[in-house]
Design goal:
5-stranded antiparallel sheet, alpha+beta, binds adenosine-5'-diphosphate, 17 strands, disordered C terminus, 599 residues
Length: 599
C-alpha cells in the first residue's frame, strides 16, 4: 500500500505537468499553423490578383467595357479555381466569375477594396453576403493613367472551407502526436516513480521484518544520496536496537533468575487487584501453579483472610504493611510484607517469607527444655526423698541407710548417663564429633556391640541370631560409631522383649547397589502405631510406664549417627508382635573411597 501511494505521489504530478505542457503546446502549435496558412493564402491570392491585374489593367485604363471584362473574369476563375471580380475605380462591378455583374451593388466600401485603394493591395476575411460562407478576399489596385485616381481593382476570393479542412487535419496530427508523447511520458513517469520508490519499499520491508522481531534484518546501501544515508542510518538504528534488546533480554533473564531462585515468595498485584507476577517460591507457599494464579484476584490466590486484610490495609492506607501470619491449614508460618508500588507499575508488591523452619526450631527448643526439665524432675525428686529419709530416720539404722544410699547412687548414675547422652547428642548434632570414615567389614562393626550385650541376652534367656552374608563387601563408616548404633538398637530389643524371646540381626544389600541395610528384629512388645513415627525424637518414650530406666535419647543418637554417614533409619512394628529397626550404610566402593580421599 505504502509503496503504491508513494509511486502515485511521484507519478501524478509528473503526469499533470506533462498534460499541461502538451495542452499548451498543442494550442500554440495549431494557432501558429493557422496563422501561417492564412498568411500563405493571402500572399498567393495577392499574387494571383496581380497576375490578373496584368491582363485586365490595360482594359481598365482604357475605360474597360463589362462585355470584355466579365468573360475575362470567368476565364481566370476557371484557371485559378477561385472567384475573380473586376471592379471599376468608382466601385462598380465590371465582371464577376460567380454572379451576374449587372445585379451586384457597388464594391467601393468593401474593406479589401478600401485598403487596396490606399496602399495598393488589401486582404479581408469575412462572411460573403452573396454566398453566405467564410471567404478570404485579396484585392490589388490598377493605377489610373493620370496618376492619383485608380483605374480599377482586381479581387480574388477563395472560400476558407478548404483551408479549414486542411487546418483540422493538421490539428488532428498535432493532437495525435501530443497524445502519443503524453502516453510515453506517462510510462516514463511511472518507471521513474517506481525507481524512486523501490529503495523506500525495500526499507519498508526491512522495517516490517524488524517489527516482527527479526533484528538481524539489514539493507545494503546502494547509493550515496539521501536514500543511501537513510539506509545506513536505518542499519545503525537496527544495530542499536539489537544491542538494546540483548541488554534488555539479559537483564530480564537475570531478574527472572533472581525471582526463580529467591527463597522468599514474591507476588505483584496490579491496581485491579489481580496477580500479575508470582515466583516459584510464592507458588510453592500458596500451593498454586503460575498458570492458575496469573490474572486471578489476590484473594482467590492466597485464600487466607489475614493476608487479604493485610493487602487491603496496604491499598487503603497507601503504605507498607507487614505481619506474621499463621496459615494453619497449610502448616505454614509466614512473614508477609505488602508494599505499594508507585513506579510505572501501580499496585502492590507482596513478599512472603517462610518462617516455618525457624518457628519449628523454636518449638523444638521449647519442647526440648520442657522435656529436659521433666526428665530431670523425677530423678531429682526421688534423690531429694532419699536424702530426706536418710537424714530424718535412717542415720541410726546403718543397714537401711546403706540401702537408701545405693538407691541414691543408682539415680545419680541414671542422671549422669542422661547428661552424657545429651552431651553426645548435642555434639553429634552440631557436627563437633568428626567422623573418621574408613572401609570396615560388617562383622567388625556388629560384633563389638553383640559382645558387649551378650551377658544381658543370656541373663534374659533370649535367643540371638546374627547373619552377615560373606559376599557383602566392607562399608565406609566410623566403626565405633556404627557399633554404638547397633548397640543402641540391640539394647532396646533386649529391653522390650520378654524372657524367652528372640532377636535377629541380619544384613542385606540394598536394591540400588551402593548401600547395605542392617536390620535388628525382635518379637517383643512392639510399638503402638501412633508412637511409631515419633520414636526417633529426643526424650520420646512410647510407653512411659513400662520403659523403665531409659532416657528416650538412644534412638535420637542412632538416627543422627546414621544420617551423618549418609544413611537412613526407620522402624516397622506392630504392638504385641515385635519390632524391626533398619538402617542403611554406604558400601566402601570406588566412589566412596574417592570421596574420602578428597576429604
Ligand atoms: P529409651 O532409652 O527409652 O530406650 P530410645 O530412644 O532408645 O529410648 O527409645 C525410644 C522409645 O522407643 C522407647 O522408650 C520405646 O518405647 C520405643 N522402642 C525402642 N525400641 C523398641 C523395641 N525394640 N521394641 C519396642 N519399643 C521400642
Amino acid at each position: 500500500m505504502v509503496s503504491h501511494n508513494i509511486r502515485l505521489r511521484i507519478a501524478v504530478p509528473y503526469m499533470i505537468l506533462i498534460l499541461a505542457a502538451m495542452g499548451i503546446l498543442s494550442i500554440y502549435l495549431s494557432r501558429v499553423t493557422r496563422a501561417n496558412a492564412v498568411q500563405e493564402l493571402e500572399e498567393s491570392l495577392l499574387k494571383q490578383a496581380r497576375a490578373v491585374a496584368e491582363v485586365a489593367g490595360p482594359l481598365l485604363q482604357e475605360g474597360g467595357e463589362p462585355e470584355e471584362l466579365d468573360p475575362l473574369a470567368r476565364r481566370w476563375a476557371e484557371l485559378l479555381q477561385a472567384r475573380v471580380t473586376i471592379i471599376a475605380g468608382d466601385g462598380t462591378v465590371l465582371g464577376d466569375s460567380d454572379e451576374p455583374y449587372a445585379t451586384m451593388e457597388g464594391h467601393a466600401l468593401r474593406p479589401e477594396v478600401q485598403r487596396a485603394r490606399l496602399s495598393g493591395s488589401g486582404v479581408s476575411i469575412r462572411t460573403s453576403e452573396t454566398l453566405q460562407n467564410e471567404m478570404m478576399y485579396a484585392a490589388v489596385r490598377v493605377p489610373g493613367s493620370q496618376g492619383d485616381t485608380p483605374a480599377g481593382f482586381v479581387r480574388i476570393a477563395l472560400a476558407l472551407d478548404l483551408v479549414e479542412a486542411r487546418l483540422v487535419r493538421l490539428r488532428n496530427l498535432i493532437l495525435k502526436a501530443a497524445v502519443a508523447t503524453t502516453l510515453v511520458a506517462f510510462v516514463l513517469a511511472l518507471l521513474i516513480a517506481e525507481r524512486t520508490a523501490r529503495p523506500v519499499r525495500r526499507l519498508t520491508d526491512v522495517a516490517r521484518r524488524m517489527a516482527a522481531g527479526d533484528l538481524e534484518a539489514r539493507l545494503l546501501p546502494r547509493s550515496n544520496d539521501e536514500i543511501g544515508t537513510l539506509t545506513r542510518t536505518f542499519n545503525e538504528m537496527g544495530e542499536q536496537l539489537r544491542e538494546q534488546m540483548t541488554t534488555l533480554a539479559e537483564e530480564r533473564a537475570r531478574l527472572a533468575m533472581v525471582l526463580e531462585l529467591m527463597a522468599d515468595g514474591l507476588l505483584i498485584v496490579d491496581e485491579a487487584g489481580q496477580v500479575r507476577l508470582l515466583n516459584p517460591a510464592a507458588a510453592r507457599l500458596l500451593e498454586v501453579t503460575r498458570e492458575e494464579a496469573l490474572g486471578r484476584s489476590f484473594a482467590e490466590v492466597v485464600r487466607h483472610h489475614e493476608l487479604i486484610e493485610l493487602y487491603q490495609r496496604c491499598v487503603e492506607r497507601g503504605q507498607e504493611e507487614a505481619a506474621t501470619v499463621d496459615m494453619a491449614q497449610r502448616n505454614l508460618f509466614v512473614r508477609a510484607m505488602v508494599t505499594p508500588l508507585r513506579g510505572v507499575e501501580r499496585g502492590c508488591l507482596v513478599i512472603l517469607q517462610n518462617l516455618t523452619p525457624i518457628r519449628r526450631l523454636q518449638t523444638v527448643r521449647q519442647d526440648f527444655i520442657s522435656n529436659l526439665s521433666h526428665e530431670l524432675r523425677t530423678p531429682l525428686a526421688s534423690l531429694k526423698a532419699l536424702v530426706e529419709t536418710i537424714r530424718d530416720s535412717a542415720l541410726d539404722d546403718p543397714e537401711a541407710a546403706h540401702r537408701f544410699l545405693d538407691r541414691a547412687e543408682f539415680e545419680v548414675d541414671a542422671l549422669t548417663q542422661m547428661v552424657q547422652e545429651l552431651l553426645e547428642l548435642t555434639r553429634i548434632e552440631s557436627g563437633k564429633i568428626p567422623l573418621r570414615l574408613s572401609p570396615a567389614p560388617l562383622h567388625e562393626v556388629i560384633a563389638p556391640a553383640v559382645e558387649r550385650l551378650e551377658s544381658q541376652v543370656e541373663r534374659k534367656g533370649l535367643a540371638l541370631g546374627v547373619a552377615i552374608p560373606p559376599e557383602i563387601g566392607p562399608v565406609l563408616v566410623d566403626a565405633p560409631r556404627i557399633s554404638q548404633v547397633v548397640g543402641n538398637l540391640l539394647h532396646n530389643a533386649i529391653k522390650f522383649t520378654p524372657e524367652g524371646g528372640r532377636i535377629d540381626i541380619w544384613v542385606e544389600p540394598e536394591a540400588g547397589g551402593d548401600y547395605v541395610i542392617v536390620h535388628v528384629q525382635d518379637n517383643g512388645v512392639g510399638i503402638p502405631a501412633l508412637d511409631l513415627p515419633r520414636v526417633f525424637e529426643r526424650f520420646y518414650k512410647a510407653d512411659r510406664a513400662r520403659s523403665s530406666g531409659g532416657t528416650g535419647l538412644g534412638l535420637a543418637i542412632a538416627r543422627h549417627l546414621v544420617q551423618a554417614h549418609g544413611g537412613r533409619i526407620w522402624a516397622q512394628s506392630r504392638a504385641g508382635e515385635g519390632s524391626t529397626f533398619s538402617f542403611t550404610l554406604p558400601l566402601a566402593n570406588g566412589e566412596h573411597e574417592a570421596q574420602e580421599a578428597r576429604a
